[in-house]
Amino acid sequence: MIVVSGASGQLGRLTVGHLLQRVDAARVVALSRTPDDVADLGVATRYADFDDPSGLPGAFEGAERLLIISLGSFTGPAQGHVNAIDAAAKAGVGHVIYTSFARAGEPGQPQALIQNHRETERLLAESRLTFTALRFNQWPEMWNLVGIPAGAVATGVLPSNSGDGRVGHITRDDSAAVAAALLANGGCEGQFVEVTGPAAVTDADVAEALSQVTGRPVRCEQVTDAELASTLSGRGLPEQYVQGWTGLGVYKREGWFDVTTHAVERLAGRRPATIADYFAAHSDALRAA
C-alpha cells in the first residue's frame, strides 16, 4: 500500500494524480484532516492530522511507502514531523519519503524554516526507518503571479536584490512527478536528493523569459534590500510578502538555491519545465495584471 499525506493540498493532489499513472488505484491511500475533500481522487481515504499523534499509526497502517509532505515551522523540527516519524516507526512503514528543501542539511543555513527541514532530516536519519529526503528547489508557484512577475510585465522592470544569485526553479508538478515515481518504484533509500529544474537562472534570466513569453520588454534592475522593499510596498503588496520576498533575494544572492541536478529525468523519466515553460503556461494571467 502507498500512503500520501496532505492529499488535499496542492502537492498532495498532484502526487496522487501522477501516482495513479503508475500504480493501480487500489494500492493508494490519501490522507487528510478533511477526507471528504479528497474523495474525488478515486482512491481510499483516511483521516490523519499530524497534530493528533494518537491516530497516526492507524492512518499509516499497512504502508509499504509513505509520503510525508512537510509542514512549515520556524522553531526547530515541526512537532507534526516528530509525530509522523514516531508513528511511521510504530506502524512499521517500509519506506518514508519526506519533502524537504534545497541544501537543507548544509551548515550555516540562515533561514529558520530551512533549519526545520534539516532537523527533520536528522530525525529521519537517526530513526530506524528507511527514508528518502527530496530536497526541492524553489517552486515558481511561490512567486504569486499577480505579484512580482506580473508587476514586472506591467511596469517593464523586475526589481531584484539577488545580484548574480541563481535558482534551480522546479515546478510543483515536476516535484509531484518525482515523489510519485519514488512512491511507485522505490529507490534512493537513505539519500538526500536535490531536485531541481533544468538550469539555475538569475533574475536577469527571469526577466528575459518574461519578455519572451509575453512579448513585452522586461528588464532586471538591481537594487538594494531597502530599495526593493520600498518598491514592492509602493506596488501595494502586503508587508509580510514584501519582507519575505526581500529576504528571499538575500538568500538567492548568497547562493543557497544555486543547484542543478538531473533528478527529474532520472527518477520521473520526464524533462522538467524551464522557468519560461512555467510562464508560458500562465501567460494570460501575466498579461492581465
Describe, in plain words, how this protein is organized in 3D.
The protein is of the alpha/beta class and 289 residues long. The chain contains twelve helices and nine strands. The strands form two sheets. A seven-stranded parallel beta sheet has the order 3-2-1-4-5-6-8, with helices on both faces. Strands 7-9 form a two-stranded parallel sheet. Strand 5, helix 4 (112-126) and strand 6 form a beta-alpha-beta unit. Helix 1 (10-19) crosses helix 6, helix 7 packs parallel to helix 11 (275-281) and helix 8 (225-234) packs antiparallel against helix 9 (239-253). The longest helix is centred in the middle third of the chain and has 15 residues, at 112-126. The protein is globular, with a radius of gyration of 20 Å.
How would you summarize the topology of this molecule?
Elements: E1 2-4, H1 10-19, E2 28-32, E3 44-47, H2 56-60, E4 65-68, H3 79-91, E5 95-101, H4 112-126, E6 131-136, H5 148-155, E7 157-160, H6 172-185, E8 191-195, H7 203-214, E9 219-222, H8 225-234, H9 239-253, H10 263-268, H11 275-281, H12 283-288
Parallel strand pairs: 1-2, 1-4, 2-3, 4-5, 5-6, 6-8, 7-9
Helix pairs in contact: 1-6, 7-11, 8-9
